[in-house]
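User: Second chain of the day. Same drill as before.
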Amino acid sequence: MKSANLLTCIAAAVTIGLVGGCAVGPDFQRPTGPGVSAYTPTPLPPHTVEAPAATGESQRFVAGGAVERQWWRALGSPRLDALVDRALQANPTLAAARATLRQAEEVYAARSGSTLYPQVDANLGGQRQRFDPGASGQAGAAREFSLYHAGVDVRYTFDAAGGNRRALEALAARVDQQRFQVEGARLTLAANIVTTAVTEARLAAQVEVTEAILASQESQLRLTRERLRLGQAAPDEVLALQTQVEQTRAGIPLLRQQRQQNEHLLAVLVGQAPGSGGLPAIAMAELTLPVDLPLAVPSELVRLRPDIQAAEAMLQAANAEYGVAVAKLYPQLNLSANLGSQSLTTGALFGSGSAIWNLVGQLTQPLFNPGLPAEKRAALAAFEAAAANYRVVVLEALRNVADVLRALDNDAQRLAALAVADAAARGFLASIERRYGLGAASYVELLIARQQAQQTSLTLIEARAARLVDSAAFYQAMGGGMLNAAGTVARSSPTDGL
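Assistant: Same format as last time:
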């Protein structure tokens, strides 16, 4: 009966400690969104300009739209989709971030198991002893006997001030922070894959066009040398053309080197060695420009970007750790109990009359510890630093979006102007070709017109690639569809499972 009463008292005390305590320190309040309604000082147009001749469509900013989780599929390249999917499975940096997240989750689980609930241990032991009454001045012969014991120990620390719950809240926030860092690593990886693939496609197209320009210049140089032999050209004309030819030839290895470096980078991003090969070559022609760009207002952006959410989780952790420092100034109650049996023989170990028990309670109140107030002030300073860091992250995010939006607008205007120039150069080339067919234009004029058209095409390729890269940067700036990820934005609770 006494054993049952003891267990009942322990259970009641533990229940009170679990549900009746209050956590000292301020409860965390999520920061409000930025108090601005626009990203740029001057209003953005509702859509970008449209380049003629279908070289660049107009992109529309859709207010309040949601970014798709697999946003890279908007570029319309199945081979690019396969590359990104492969990288998300095999990239070691992302794998390391995921493993760190699992570590944080298990640390939280371990800490919650050791602080939220009582610790119960079972013990069973025996010992052999010799007792000599003469050693204490008593009469009698020395005796040897065995002593056996079995029992259950229960230990629990009442979280009256909520220090343990604040510590768990801090750990839960760290789990959230790591979860958002995983999401940020995933988003950065996808954006890097898209940017690298677009850059490789641009360089491949530029190498092809530059080689065509070089062939045209070499043809013009051969013709000029023949004119020099016939006395119809000056030596300086040949030297000038030769300089132009070699300059163009020198630019091709540079483009090839940049392309090869991009291939190596793409292989590493996908999670394989550069020498493995086997990566698909993506051409500019298979990439399409996304038309509708979902644009969130600044107040919503703070809930969409993983870097801002990670900074908010750091702020919550700092707030909870401040509560831990405050709780150390309050009394702490520790309770321990033991229920077991003890006997001189194993047969009587669990018999009647062998039961033993004890119950110990200890209340500790710090009276003089100068370090505790300093620890509290340090925790408050850490919270203020986390709050300032959060503001920095938000401001940098707003700047990032503003830069991307301006890039989308300006690069669209640049592409539109280059498209007009390209159409004019092609029209001029067609005119020279007709005149050349009629004998009204020389072959040199034809070569010059062809080179002009090729040079314009070279610049146009770069401008088209820039708009594709801008689109990838826009999706990244909008958070990459983080809210569409199941479980990504769920905030951990220090009392989950109670």
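Residues 201 and 283 are 5 Å apart (CA to CA).

User: Great, on to the next one.
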